[in-house]
Amino acid sequence: MNSNLIGPIASVLAGGVLAAVSVFGLISSQTAPPSTSPAIAEAPEFDYGTTAE
What we know:
Layout: H1 3-30
């Protein structure tokens, strides 16, 4: 294998692993049981901030 290809291939593999782990963590945290999930499906709360008058 050409030594000029080792770096880019390693970078693509490392980036792919990092992306897969990040997406897996995001999905598992959002679909976790209610005790560990940051969202409450039964009573969603939308807080868009307050306005000062």
